């Protein structure tokens, strides 16, 4: 397993990170099997584990905490906060009030004294960036987190965060975690370029495009649904034009993988690591066999001939599907933020 610098933090992480979104009720409720996945990942040379407080309502963090007892110093441990775990006001977002409480709760569930990397899970347009960066800077100085980053931030908000940090004397985000795979290359247009400019480590998620790049879902439609296809059947409906387009592209990518002498999942997982901005790709196995199948391709290196073929099918900077709402310009969908109220228009 290759090791790479985590941006300019001084930490070094494996090129594969173990993502644990599928640990717990939302994926694999067997805590013992999840612990075996963690231990097997460590044995394969993965030293980077990524979780979040909202994964199975905190259950994933609890599983990771138990699995790391006696091995905590062997890993770079990352988690995230932003989403609500309970109902009520002031129980989500990126405010000082909420993130302070969220970090304390994550420390308890993870059974650790510190978090190596704490990430703001999504942008919060209701909270000033100075507020967010201020509390994260204080948490670093208190020793509760070692460094911090962002997840699924559009490029302009990444730039804003660095500019605010510079002007206010606050610490800067050191990592960004965007969706990036063979079917979703939109972040190549700006997010990855901005990250390189600021020396920000990029940790990509969804290398298998929610299961479409496993090779299990084909135009033949013979595979029984499992995993996310059961949880989100609408995403896999072949009558949907977007799904149909995905399946068409998958057929072409399967042929490229066969000619390259690898499986489609191996091709998909190796692809993000080719980009010079990417430090680590987050894999999210639900079972131990899924982990073993993924790490089997850890030594795969894609040559220019393969990458040129990929570019012909999915041109650089383009998306076959939109990977996440943060990049979908939600302000354009809702007229309220971009239209003055009638009284204001009349007055002007």
From TrEMBL:
Biased composition (Low complexity): 326-335
Protein keywords: Oxidoreductase
Pfam families: Aldo_ket_red (PF00248)
SUPFAM superfamilies the UniProt entry points to: NAD(P)-linked oxidoreductase
UniProt-listed InterPro entries: AKR (IPR020471), AKR_Detox_Biosynth (IPR050523), NAD(P)_OxRdtase_dom_sf (IPR036812), NADP_OxRdtase_dom (IPR023210)
Domain NADP-dependent oxidoreductase: 18-314
Keyword Oxidoreductase belongs to the record: yes
Name of the protein in question: Aldo/keto reductase
